[in-house]
Amino acid sequence: EAVVSATRELKRSLMKHLFTYGVVPVEEAESVPLVETEIGLVPEAWGVVRLGEVSDKTKQKDPRKTPGWRFKYIDVSSISRETLKIAEYKLYQGQEAPSRAKKLVKNKDVIFATVRPTLKRLTLINEEFDGEICSTAFCVLRARENILNPLFMFYAVQRDVFIDEFEKVQRGASYPAITDSDVKNQKIPLPPPTTQQKIASILSTVDRKIEAEENRKKALDELFKTLLNDLMTGRIRVNHLEV
Predict the structure, then answer these.
(1) To bridge 54 with a disulfide, which of 104, 148, 184, 224 should be the other Cys (CB 3.0-4.6 Å)?
(2) Contact 178/170 with Cβ under 8 angstroms?
(3) What's the distance, CA 47 to chain centroid?
(4) What values do phi and psi take at 186, rounded to 5?
(5) Is-contact 127 107, C-beta < 8 A?
(6) What pLDDT is stored for residue 174 in this prediction?
(7) Confidence of residue 33 (pLDDT cuts 50, 70, 90)
(8) Is the sign of the CA dihedral 218, 220, 225, 226 positive or negative?
(9) Are the C-beta atoms of residues 75 and 112 closer than 8 Å to each other?
(10) 241: pLDDT confidence band, cut at 50, 70 and 90?
(11) pLDDT at residue 233 in the model
């Protein structure tokens, strides 16, 4: 647990550093020329763009028009806020599809929940869910890959400074929500493509470390439970041990 907590803290620190100074050692950060923008300080060589300017239009598909089609459905509750991954999904036949199951997703899309947006329910679609369906409660962001690295976009939209902006535009007290346009109107930093790739690579390495440690913790928990059960039921005998 301590290792997971420390690695998560490392990721937060790295994100703040990388999105402010770029890929430079901490001791050289002061030498990076910065400019003040609408989204805070960024390196002088970077741009700032609206998400809508660097993402492509996406399509909707009504599964009920193909009753025999079996698809994976991603709802807002499917996304883990801890890991920002799809923790679960439901399988439906076309004729059983929920009314909100209409947005088609592709590999490398980023989906961002527009209901209670500050809860940060977002994820990067992988090959397992290529061509599947998500709820209309998501904004589907498809990066123009000649301009914007999809993995870089995934990290750019999970920053606190990005999420906090939605507190100003969300509507509804008991069930706050935003629109797709609100998401696409938000601005993100746009470094050169090589810098995008490096930032995405560094942060994804940290994410893999967090995932590995989480899996290790789960394995140890299961081992403990199994041993405890075996000891309490006498399946494993320890009365011959000298204490």
Answers:
(1) 148
(2) yes
(3) 23
(4) -70, 150
(5) yes
(6) 84
(7) very high
(8) positive
(9) no
(10) confident
(11) 87
pLDDT band per the 50, 70, 90 thresholds, residue 5: very high
Tokens 């609408």 sit on residue = 38
d(CA 167, CA 178): 9
- pTM, 2 dp: 0.89
Number of neighbours of residue 148 by Cβ within 10 angstroms? 22
Percent of the chain with pLDDT over 90: 91
User: What integer pLDDT is reported at residue 229 of this predicted model?
Assistant: 87
**Confidence (pLDDT) at 173:** 79
Q: What is the pLDDT of residue 222?
A: 93
Question: Rounded to the nearest 5°, which phi and psi values hold at 162?
Answer: -75, -45
Q: Are 135 and 171 in contact (CB under 8 A)?
A: no
Structure tokens at 202: 């560094």
